[in-house]
């Protein structure tokens, strides 16, 4: 769901930025449409409405000289790109007035971004910055999916050679030479496998483990996972004719069976050079894309296998390049919303044409810097194409999609966006209701609030109005209010309100309850004091009675004395 603008901001009339592809130059200092206003009111329906895009940072017009002769009713003319943002999203609107064909057969659209002004000049550099300054989004409109990287057909294989001595290990016999001798440079010694005694015979066993990911320049796992087969070829001979010489392909679980005829192939056993070819299908690759196989040879006497070269062709699915429309079909942005429509727009209210609205969450744009320029290339196909091409593009390089060079992007200043603060202050410490006796003195209340942009607070005594403030407050620092000493018996309610610079506020209420004094003032004696007086009186009476008894007893004794 698209976030709505949080405050209403009036946007003045804006100058339109015009770019003529292949003609007039461009400068990134062209005034922005809006400086601080977040996008608001976008309805993602694929129809460009002027009021929806009035808060865009940019509205750029660009002229496309397309193949209007070969693709009627498409026409040369102005097209428009809208570019804006809110707190969470980048918005892109494409008003393609030149594309007047309503069907979506074969249609796609792409967006390439340079989010933090990276500098790159080839595909590998561009790939290395993906999700770290460069981003891409290619959408298959016809099927309404992110453009698949591969087609479901196999491409031709590319030839490679072992590239490390770590790729092979001698189990029986020994190896003379290193991996370099296995290429086809020619004029170099053979890669020799020399037998060693084995039971009553002589044997060679060399195990190979080759990670095919090492042979892809980028997107290694992606390409390895799309591998259909590996064509393995050896070219060599033996210094003497031997009994058997075989190559066994390992299973995907890392085991092998030399007796499995589907996995074991014969190699040259003679003294003349010969080629041997085997096919290693993807089902034999390990889960981490290793191709494992063994060369195992046996003979009754010592022998030496002499390999001139070993090469393997890796056959992957065909890259979905749309007839070389773009260098690489990779989409780094997978979470996005795209809608398209066909109709009229404020830029052309007489002829139906193609429109796109695209929302890209900023969470998809790692390291997006809203205070830096944003580089962008757009392109696509919808029957609308350049002459002798199968795409259209808005790029700085000869009307082409060459996203691997940072200099081919158009750059737009996106700085200045102000997102309204809608978070209320938080009151992290509040006083409990306070009960005091009549005649109290020196009582106070204390609150502590937090906010990134604190402003003022007020304290209101209900029935009397504001008794303190507006007064500035500091996040995390307590405020203290001294209660007047002259409240009569009863309940007094205070209401404190903390406000931040954006007008967000939060309040708290506390009661100050005044009760009758527990002292002797006013002639009344509390029950507790009466009880003490009663006990004291009883003690005095007991003492008096006791003394009287003693006095009477003493008197009697005196009277009885002769």
What's the structural domain tally?
3
Strand content: 35-45%
Shape: flat
The CATH topology of the largest domain corresponds to Immunoglobulin-like
Cα gyration radius (Å):
44 Å
Runs with pLDDT <50, length 5+? 1-16, 21-30, 521-528
Which CATH top level class of the largest domain fits?
Mainly Beta
Give a quick account of the main beta sheet: strands, pairing sense, barrel closure. Answer: 7 strands, antiparallel
Category by helix and strand content: mainly beta
Tell me the distance between the termini: 121 Å
Q: Count the helices. How many?
A: 3
Q: What average pLDDT do the residues reach?
A: 87
Q: Tally of extended strands? A: 33
CATH architectural type of the largest domain: Sandwich
Portion in helices: under 10%
Helices and strands in order, then pairings?
Layout: E1 17-20, E2 58-64, E3 77-85, E4 89-96, E5 108-114, H1 123-128, E6 134-140, E7 145-146, E8 150-154, E9 158-160, E10 168-172, E11 174-176, E12 191-194, E13 196-198, E14 201-211, H2 220-225, E15 227-238, E16 244-249, E17 264-266, E18 274-281, E19 290-299, E20 304-319, E21 337-345, E22 348-361, E23 373-381, E24 392-394, E25 410-413, E26 426-429, E27 434-437, E28 444-450, E29 454-461, E30 465-472, E31 479-482, E32 490-500, E33 505-515, H3 527-560
Parallel strand pairs: 1-2, 27-33
Antiparallel strand pairs: 2-3, 3-4, 4-22, 5-6, 5-23, 6-7, 8-20, 9-20, 10-14, 11-12, 12-20, 13-14, 14-19, 15-18, 15-20, 16-17, 16-19, 21-22, 23-24, 23-25, 26-28, 28-31, 29-30, 29-32, 32-33
């Amino acid at each position: 769901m698209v976030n709505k603008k949080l405050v209403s901001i009036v946007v003045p009339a804006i100058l339109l930025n015009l770019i003529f592809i292949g003609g007039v130059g461009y400068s990134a200092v062209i005034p922005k449409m809006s400086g601080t206003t977040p996008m608001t009111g976008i309805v993602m329906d694929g129809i460009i409405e002027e009021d929806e895009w009035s808060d865009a940072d940019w509205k750029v017009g660009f002229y496309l000289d397309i193949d209007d002769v070969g693709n009627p009713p498409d026409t040369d003319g102005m097209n428009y790109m809208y570019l804006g943002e809110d707190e969470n999203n980048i918005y892109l609107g494409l008003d393609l007035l030149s594309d007047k064909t309503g069907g979506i057969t074969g249609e796609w659209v792409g967006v390439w971004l340079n989010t933090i002004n990276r500098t790159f000049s080839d595909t590998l550099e561009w790939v290395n910055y993906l999700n770290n300054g460069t981003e891409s989004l290619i959408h298959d409109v016809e099927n309404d999916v992110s453009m698949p990287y591969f087609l479901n057909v196999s491409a031709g294989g590319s030839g490679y050679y072992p590239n490390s001595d770590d790729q092979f290990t001698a189990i029986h016999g020994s190896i003379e030479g290193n991996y370099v001798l296995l290429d086809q440079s020619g004029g170099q010694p053979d890669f020799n496998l020399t037998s060693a005694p084995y039971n009553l015979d002589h044997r060679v066993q060399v195990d190979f483990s080759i990670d095919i990911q090492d042979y892809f320049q980028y997107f290694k796992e992606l390409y390895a996972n799309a591998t259909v087969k590996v064509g393995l070829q050896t070219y060599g001979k033996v210094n003497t004719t031997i009994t058997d010489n075989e190559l066994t392909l390992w299973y995907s679980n890392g085991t092998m069976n030399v007796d499995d005829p589907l996995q074991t192939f014969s190699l040259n056993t003679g003294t003349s050079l010969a080629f041997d070819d085997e096919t290693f299908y993807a089902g034999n690759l390990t889960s981490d894309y290793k191709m494992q196989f063994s060369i195992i040879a046996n003979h009754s006497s010592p022998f030496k296998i002499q390999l001139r070269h070993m090469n393997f062709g890796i056959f992957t699915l065909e890259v979905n390049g749309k007839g070389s429309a773009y260098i690489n079909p990779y989409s780094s942005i997978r979470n996005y919303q795209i809608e398209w429509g066909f109709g009229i727009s404020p830029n052309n209210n007489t002829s139906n044409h193609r429109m796109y609205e695209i929302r890209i969450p900023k969470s998809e744009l790692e390291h997006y810097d809203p205070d830096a320029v944003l580089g962008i290339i757009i392109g696509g196909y919808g029957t609308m194409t350049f002459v002798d091409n199968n795409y259209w593009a808005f790029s700085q390089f000869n009307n082409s999609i060459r996203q691997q060079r940072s200099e081919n992007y158009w750059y737009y200043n996106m700085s200045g966006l102000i997102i309204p603060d809608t978070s209320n202050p938080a009151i992290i410490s509040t006083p409990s209701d306070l009960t005091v006796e009549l005649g109290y003195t020196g009582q106070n209340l204390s609150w502590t609030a937090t906010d990134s942009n604190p402003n003022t607070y007020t304290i209101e005594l209900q029935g009397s109005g504001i008794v303190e403030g507006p007064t500035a407050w500091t996040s995390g620092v307590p405020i203290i209010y001294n209660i007047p000493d002259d409240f009569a018996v009863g309940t007094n309610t205070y209401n404190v309100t903390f406000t931040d610079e954006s007008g967000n506020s939060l309040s708290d209420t506390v009661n100050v309850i005044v009760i009758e004094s527990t002292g002797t003032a006013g002639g009344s004696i509390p029950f507790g004091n009466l009880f003490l007086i009663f006990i004291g009186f009883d003690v005095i009476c007991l003492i008096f009675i006791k003394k009287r008894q003693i006095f009477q007893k003493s008197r009697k004794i005196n009277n009885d004395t002769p």
